[in-house]
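Entry 14. Ran structure prediction on the chain below.
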Amino acid sequence: MLTWQAGDGRALESARVLLGAGGLRALGRAVRAVPGEPTLTSSYRLVVGESGELQRLSVTTASAERERSLTLNRTEDGYWLLDTGSGGSRAEFEKSVDVDLEFSPLFNALPIRRLGLHKESGDHTLPMVIVSVPTLEVSLVRQRYRTVSTLDADGRAVVEFSQDDLAAELTVDADGLVIDYPGLAARV
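Output, structure tokens:
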């Protein structure tokens, strides 16, 4: 079990994570109570294959006004199947293999683990499927992941993450899972 808390205490995420050689399975839930925004919860089920590529993501968000759900499946031929419960669609998303769920530090681990950026230096700009919370709108963005330092004697590494105007140096553990995402959350 991993748990992250926002620095201001207004968001909390907890996930049961099962690690494989290159893949992982996770079942998580997050709660956000930010002033001026509706309080919301989200839950997800994530399956990443041993190659490190996402196979399936199911997300549900709920606020006082509404509940939404989305399932993403990545096919072997590189297409994405999106299902919102009221019909499905198929998208290519420019050969992306990773997904980022907005406000979740767990999802930053997907490209870090797949590319081994916590173990050896690298610098990659990736097409990334991003899922917005709470709307569950799906779009393609470019995110950069660059190794700042590989694993040290304490089993920690630092990987810089950036997208548009957003940048942060993520501290990760020996499994490539986020310990600290400055400005978003830290593991407790």
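The first strand starts at residue 2 and ends at 5. Will compare against last week's run tomorrow.
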